[in-house]
Predict the 3D structure of the following.
Amino acid sequence: MDHNEQQETTHKPVKRKEMSRRQFLSYTLGGAGAFMAGGAILPMIRFAVDPILQKKEKGAFVKAIEESKVTSEPQQVDFKVHQVDGWYESDPKMQAWITKDEKGNIFALSPVCKHLGCTIGWSGEEAPNLYHCPCHGARYNKEGKNLKVAPKPLDEYQVKRENGWVYLGPLEPNTRV
Ligand code: FES
């Protein structure tokens, strides 16, 4: 190797790496495609997880009966509750036994027997002035106290009185017995 050749190899100019037209196009189109795909996919993901992100409506009260119609004799009242479970919305029919006590307080009992979940009824020849269950003979008094067969008192709805109406809220364990 002569002197000139040696100089050429030691002082080689730095080669700049240039992007080819093909690379430029593929980067540009790829980026634009990814952006557009993101625009289409993100709303789908948002839709898929939306029910999880929604705040659950807790403690909603439902109008059940006019206050003036509630007496000391338990009355069966039907009402509907709007339920949202993920993407599924429904309005199941609910039932309550509503009574006014001697102090004028209104309370509402669940009709679901605490033995195995049959629907109870009020009074009659078999069980005068008692709630009774047709399935295995459970008995409860007017306040929902379990007297026979059932291991627990009847559950109680939360009650709210407003503008002459009785509103029922979520069920809770009986607070009266
Ligand atoms: S379900 Fe009511 S007594 Fe058994």
